[in-house]
């Protein structure tokens, strides 16, 4: 196995372990074989309390753009749509911090692929959790309150 594949596999396993420890159900997709050429399989699919998150995992260095092949972005988007989930590009920055980028935040390159210009600007894990599993009540939660 090449260095790049080992590095990617390590990053996927690391994120899977973190999410499992936070109470998510986690499935890591295979990297090759099993029909991967005929249908897209994301790096990670996680679920908790009926919410499904689908991740394509990348590694990057702080301050350097991360480039993503269009087939991976379109594949993770289609998989999330079929599963009724939300797709993200998860980037592990050098130094260990994870950032999560919604697909609508990606930029298109001249060749039709995608890039994240500043991977550090993505959501932190705690922000991602708060977005999908808010711990605090919002004012809109009280607008539908009916007094008895």
Features:
alpha+beta; globular; Trna Endonuclease, Chain: A, domain 1; 148 residues; five-stranded mixed beta sheet; single chain; 8 strands; three-stranded antiparallel beta sheet
Uncertain regions: pLDDT < 50 for 5+ in a row?
none
**Total domains, how many?**
1
Mean pLDDT rating? 88
Instruction: Report the radius of gyration as a whole number of Å.
Output: 17 Å
Task: Write down the overall geometry.
Answer: globular
Spell out the helices and strands N to C: HEEEEHEEEEHH
Which architecture name does CATH use?
A: 3-Layer(aba) Sandwich
- Strand percentage lies at 25-35%
Strand order of the largest sheet: 1-2-3-5-6
Would you tell me the structural class of the helices and strands?
Answer: alpha+beta
Class in CATH? Alpha Beta
What does this structure look like?
The strands form two sheets. A five-stranded mixed beta sheet has the order 1-2-3-5-6. Strands 4-8-7 form a three-stranded antiparallel beta sheet. It has one domain: Trna Endonuclease, Chain: A, domain 1. The relative contact order is 0.14. It has four helices and eight strands, in the order H-E-E-E-E-H-E-E-E-E-H-H. Helices cover 31% and strands 27% of the residues. It starts with a helix and ends in a 5-residue tail after the last helix. By secondary structure, the chain is an alpha+beta fold.
Helix-strand layout with pairing:
Elements: H1 3-21, E1 25-28, E2 44-48, E3 51-60, E4 66-68, H2 70-83, E5 86-93, E6 98-102, E7 107-108, E8 114-116, H3 125-132, H4 139-143
Parallel strand pairs: 3-5
Antiparallel strand pairs: 1-2, 2-3, 4-8, 5-6, 7-8
């Amino acid at each position: 196995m090449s260095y790049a594949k080992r590095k990617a596999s390590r990053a996927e396993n690391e994120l899977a372990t973190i999410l499992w420890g936070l109470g998510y159900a986690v499935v890591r997709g295979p990297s090759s074989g099993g029909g991967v050429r005929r249908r897209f399989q994301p790096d990670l699919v996680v679920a908790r309390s009926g919410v499904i998150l689908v991740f394509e995992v990348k590694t990057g260095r702080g301050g350097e753009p991360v480039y993503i092949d269009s087939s991976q972005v379109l594949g993770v988007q289609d998989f999330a749509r079929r599963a009724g989930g939300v797709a993200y590009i998860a980037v592990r920055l050098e130094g260990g911090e994870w950032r999560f980028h919604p697909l609508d935040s990606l930029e298109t390159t001249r060749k039709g692929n995608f890039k994240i210009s500043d991977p550090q600007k993505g959501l932190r894990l705690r922000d991602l959790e708060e977005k999908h599993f808010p711990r605090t009540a919002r004012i809109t939660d009280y607008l539908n309150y009916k007094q008895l």
